[in-house]
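ok here's DUF3000 domain-containing protein, seq below lol
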Amino acid sequence: MTAHPDAGTIFDDAVAELRDIAFRADITIREIPTPQGLAPHALALAADVRPDDEGESAYGTGRFVLLHDPDTPSAWDGAWRIVIFAQAPLETEIGTDPLLADVTWSWLVDALDSRGAVYHSASGTSTKTLSKGFGTLSVEGDGAQIELRASWTPDGPFAPHVEAWVELVGMLAGLPPGSEGIAVIGARKAARD
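and the structure came out like this:
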């Protein structure tokens, strides 16, 4: 590993940029411990849609990790990488839609594009899960969940990337852009772990 004396300062500037963002009030954003061993510098954020008093969300959740490695890993094709996760319970009928995975990925791309986020080397998976309870869990009925895991190499400012991620988390939870302050009638059925 090559020494890069300014890497810490560059990363600190990026973190300061992200900490200055004002997020919508119905999605709680907080810093969480960063995954170890992914890069010399990392920042991790968690998002919870309309959490209850215990901090749990019946609507959706997400994670955002900003990684910086001045040695520019070849898989990243740059010194920065963003890794995201977003998950939300769904109505079972929506979970069976054959286009759901494609739509979920398109929401991420649309959110990035609408914010003017510049990026390359994107990759990811969209997973839908259907579940059915049996025995003592049969009272819980059927459930569905959508999950998106993605990563990309950002170019330019980082704020549009985290704003796009927050928009995606809200969209998966059923909160379209501009829906702050609008009541949600009941939580979607949470999928079982």
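fwiw The two ends are 40 Å apart (CA to CA). kinda neat tbh
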